[in-house]
Amino acid sequence: MMTRRHPTHGRAVPSLRPRLLATACIAALMTQPAPAQDASAAPQQSSASSTTQPPTTTQSATPKDKRTANPDAASTLDAVIVTGIQGSIQNAIKAKQNSDNIIEAISAEDIGKLPDSSIAESLARLSGLATQRVDGRANQISIRGLSPDFAGTTLNGREQATIGENRGVDFDQYPSELISGAAVYKTPDASLIGQGLSGTVDLHTIKPLDLPKRAFAANLRGENNSNGSLNHGTGVGDTGHRASFSYIDQFFDHTLGLAVGFAQLDSPVQEKQYQAWWWSLNNGSQGAESNWGAPHTPGMPDNVISQEGMQLRAKSENQLRNGLMTVLEWAPNDNYHSTLDLYYSTFDQKTYLNGVQWSSSPYDNVSYNNVGYVPALPYPIVTTGHIDGLKSILQNDYTKERDRLFSAGWNNQYDFGNGWVITGDASYSSAKKRLHDAYLFAGLPGQATSSTDFATPEHEGFPDFRPGVNFADPSAMFFTDPNDYGYNGREEFDHQKDTIKAFRLEVSHPVGWIFSDVNVGVNYSDRRKTKQADVYFAWLNGNGSTADDYQPGFAAPIDPSYLRGTTDLSYGGIPGVVNYDVLRALAGQFYLTQRNGQADWSRNYSVREKVPVAYVKFNIDTTLGDVPLRGNVGVQAVRTDQSSEALQTNGDTLVGRISDGTRYTKVLPSLNLAAEIADKQFLRFGLAKTMARGRIDDEKVATSAGVALVNDGPAAGQVLWSGSGGNPKLKPYIAVGADLSWEKYFGTASYVAAAVFNKNLLNYIYNQTTLDYDFSRYVNDNPTLTPTSTRGSFTRPENGTGGKMQGLELSGAIEGGLIARALDGFGAQANFSLTNSTLPVSAVSSIPGSPSTLPGLSRKVANLALYYEKYGWSVRIAERYRSSFTGEAVALFDQLGYTRVLADKQTDFQLGYAFEHGTWDGLSILLQVNNLTNSPMKTEQISGLPNNVKVARPLEYDTFGRTVMFGVNYKL
């Protein structure tokens, strides 16, 4: 862990107790110098790597262990001594109450046992936090309505490299069994390195010297997915397991501590997918026939909305994750303390995604009969009928992903005994990703057509298609290009690496007056993220690969030795589709040609950020009259030196390499005040300027640019440059936030809190076109044209006008025994968040489907958990809700995009029994059901009809099944 700051907060420090402290601190904060702005603004990336952790109060195991720990850390001794659901709540509340900042916290119920099956699910139950589901699992976290890219994430106070293309951490990379707790900083302080614009999540591993004696814990759980096995023959079933063990010990009179933990996840994903491609009016005065000149659609009634294509697919994925954590802690005397943290994980995923799709627009020469529709506004919606003339496409996908995470940190602290404490921390984090994607097309030979009866829901839900051909019959399905896509398949190889090297040095010393002590520190981090993508098109043996010799109708039967069975699509009415080994078929019946396009070349790049940080933080410990007041005030100066290397293209043609970069400095003042206005009743105030560097794929210098002869307009006859790409000169997002929170604590695991916040985004990043861009560094790949000028138009991400966010957060927990003796053992937790935002229309990005409001923003987020814990029994049912939001999604081959995700509600259930006496003491059994109601993920699209009327219609409807886990835990 980063710093264990020795206690200097004591009330013995002389104090003048000024009654106008808050006013003075705010005035000092607001008179900080404005951020220095270089003429050449610079790119963005995350901050430093190891974060100072204020002291936590820990029950010393021996008189020698006089260290203090972080009040924000939910991984203290009590988290192990006081166990179970109430113990977890009690420790999290204690961290929240003792913190100088406004935070939320979670704590493990016991060693190796967070209250949920994943870290992200536990975090999503905190006030103001929400999760985005990936493959049905909570994976990324949004804080206060901002997307995951705006949140900082640290492990033991150190910034972590990420598997994704941007900055948001995938929390499923960190086994919940190896995490003892987490603190979410909603307000930062000057010593918080790697802080995010929306907040910072700090994950904690166990600290062995916090335990009074040796401990051992192991758990084993089997799991089953209710969706069953969808892709037969792939080896991915509907059962899996989780296993973990933790060993913690102390040696040499409790001066040396060791913690070792291992966790394995072998889990299936079985996902039923349905997607409506787009919606339109075909015939009639309002339709495509009259307004776009489209062909008439036989059999379709006039002025009715119909679905213009669909995709029905089944996904089977095996996830195998192994995580190993080691902590070595040494405190040989009262002066020196050293901690070495190591974490390594492997995450392997194999995905099989098979299904059928077709286009049924007026341009596809289809015809309808027996069409039925239901009344709706603004136009009736077609729900039943029969379609002829479909060119059905069978697409079989295979994806293999290998992720490797490594994190190491060595922290050393020395107390000179005269008030001076020095702390040094060195860390390294790396994330490596290798991705192999491939897919092939099949269908009826000779581009023959088929027909189907259909019944599609008016709103969200699965359809019922009854095709006239058996898609599971391998003798009828051939490798071919059924609808003239221009190729027979595709294969891609991606390699990505992200590394962060960091060093930090901090000194602290008592001060006096209204301050207990001061922390002065520096941090230096060096981050480098590189990505390479190589794309190949697949062509059937015997077929051509150019516009002159390629034959879309060319077909070849599927080699029987490649067949695996069938893919079950019965949930959509189709009994099944043929299933085969994509890689073997690709090697045996196809040949490849490299075919990187503009979008593929742009994903070959590197971004480097070197970030020195200096900070000073004064810790406040005084009174206002009779009111105890604590907190901190300080400032952080962040210098960023960013550079990027990438490829220049002209459309799909590779031209050469290009590089660019910039530097900038930002000054970030912060203030946190916590006044105990009554017994266990606090009023907190936070005011801070925060920053977050832009998306890494916005900051890359990858560019497509070229020259062309202008044929008309004022510039007719001139040869001008034009292009588009990333912007390595982006300045970061900057926000000024103010928070006010009231908290009342009572009982042992009860509290109520209300908070309001306002965050002014001083700028936002969006795409805009610069008409006077300097192309002097670019290569002209057209020797027949000489540009009239080195200036031209260029579209790229730029800093623009910001927006605003305001929010209300209500949270609380109650022990039933405080209400009535008969309710002893019962309890409840609840929270609700309401967030509003405004964002200029100009901030709309060019990424497909990007929002005009803040991405990831759910206006309403709520959680409710009811539990019972007594006599060894524990029962908990929890539900989380978030209203609709625009979330980031990764389409095929790592292409980024956005989609509108509709309101989501998920319910989880937990039942356990712990043997507390006798032979079975230390043993517990646990039943968990995640996604109890099989809640679907639903998205929608805004369809622009031919008459320019816009309607919201369903896009995706996916179900992941409920996951039932049953197992045993043993603690010694």
Work out the helix count: 8
The percentage helix is under 10%
Computed Rg? 30 Å
Report the strand count: 48
Determine the mean pLDDT. 87
What does the main sheet amount to?
Answer: 22 strands, antiparallel, barrel
Low-confidence stretches: 1-69, 74-81, 843-850, 889-897
Task: Quote the beta fraction.
Answer: over 45%
Ends: how far apart?
Answer: 26 Å
Q: Judging from the principal axes of the Cα atoms, what is the shape?
A: globular
Explain this structure.
It is built from 8 helices and 48 strands. The protein has a 22-stranded antiparallel beta barrel. Strands 1-6-7-4-5 form a 5-stranded mixed β-sheet. A 4-stranded antiparallel β-sheet has the order 15-16-19-20, with no helix packed on it. Helix content is 6%, strand content 54%. With 972 residues, it is mostly beta strands. Mean pLDDT is 87; it is low at 1-69, 74-81, 843-850 and 889-897.
What key attributes describe this structure?
single chain; about 950 residues; mainly beta; 22-stranded antiparallel barrel; five-stranded mixed β-sheet; 48 strands; globular
